[in-house]
Amino acid sequence: MNTKNICIIAPSRQMGGIERALSILSAHFVKRGHKVTYISCRAGNHFYELDSKVVYLEPPFPHTTKPIKKTISYYKTIRFIRHQLKQIKPDTIMVFGDIINPIALIANKNLGYPIYISDQISPKQNLGFFKNFMKKITYRSATGIIAQSQMAADYKTQVFGNNLNMVIIPNSLRDISSYSNVRKKNWVIGVGRLSTEKGFDRLIEAYSKIENHDNWQLILVGDGPERENLQNQVYKLGLSDKVKFLGQRNDVDALLAESKIFVIPSRCEGFPNALCEAMASPLPCISFDSISASDIIENRKSGVVIPDGDIEALAQEITILMDNEALRNTYAQNAESIRERLDKDRIGDLFLNFILSDKI
């Protein structure tokens, strides 16, 4: 195979969906015989391991969130990336992140290297004036754009026009541990950061409307800034004996295996990795249509997609699955096909075919 020099530009190596996806993709690119350089825009906090053959670079200055210093940091990051690109001389560049994309595009200005970008966030997420402005003035200079879902692709077409070189490629699925002969518990489970956009307040409200199912529990896995508010909501609704907060856990696969129903109540998502992992477990899943769930769940076949914000419908669908083991099993069996759809090698090759399309 003709070896190519691929440069990946990432926000960091800390814990996060983008960093997880890029660690998997960089390993796949190396596996396919390519040279890979991973440039992080933030030093330190190496949560995800990289393949030993991946060349890793990070800036020699600290990241800051202070307004004035942040502007200086952006400028220094652009210079750092530009300097590295001149040294690396990549055949192609791949960038993930709504903040990093404009920075990388500016750094590559007049260097002429093919550069492919992906936001990896929900099109419904409000980024503010500055970030939206930077995207509008830089995104058209990208060689290609990778959207995670049809919803994201439609949004980009609406904002940037029809003349985009764009493809839809979802994230790959991480390796999900299999647990045979696990005794299932009467658990409805939700997994994710306890923040406003994840919508766990909506799930708790819906759960409060479910009657005559005292032998079931709602299990919330994750932590975040809304934990105290959510716990107060549970207390006020009289659900303290029915809703359990487990915090951040490293045994999520085992918890999913023990559960019977998965719900993702998010207000917005880039690509719902937690939903995909639950389907691969496999579990019957319920989601609002506020995210790209329709790209993932075959409604009434591998799970249920309901109108965004319809709390009554959410409560009803949870109750139906609680009462119907056969339906739960049918949805779960159909959901497991996501393992093949989002296989790491399959998704990795889709990325390679796109970012090297002008080199083949």
The CATH homologous superfamily of the largest domain is called Glycogen Phosphorylase B
Report the major sheet.
Answer: 7 strands, parallel
* CATH class annotation of the largest domain: Alpha Beta
Q: Unreliable segments (pLDDT under 50, ≥5 consecutive)?
A: none
**Overall radius of gyration:** 21 Å
Task: Give, in order, the helices and strands.
Answer: EHEEHEHEHEHEEHEHEHEHEEHHHH
- In the sheet with the most strands, the strands line up as 3-2-1-4-5-6-7
Which topology of the largest domain does CATH recognise? Rossmann fold
Strand content: 15-25%
Task: Calculate the mean pLDDT score and round it.
Answer: 91
Note the gap between the termini.
Answer: 11 Å
**Tally of DSSP helical segments:** 13
Instruction: Indicate the percent of residues in helices.
Output: 25-40%
Question: How many structural domains can be distinguished in the coordinates?
Answer: 2
- What's the count of strands? 13
Shape: globular
Structural class by secondary-structure content = alpha/beta
CATH architecture of the largest domain: 3-Layer(aba) Sandwich
What's this entry about, in short?
This protein is of the alpha/beta class. It has a seven-stranded parallel β-sheet, with helices on both faces.
Key traits:
single chain; 360 residues; alpha/beta; Rossmann fold; 2 domains; 7-stranded parallel beta sheet; 13 helices; 39% helix
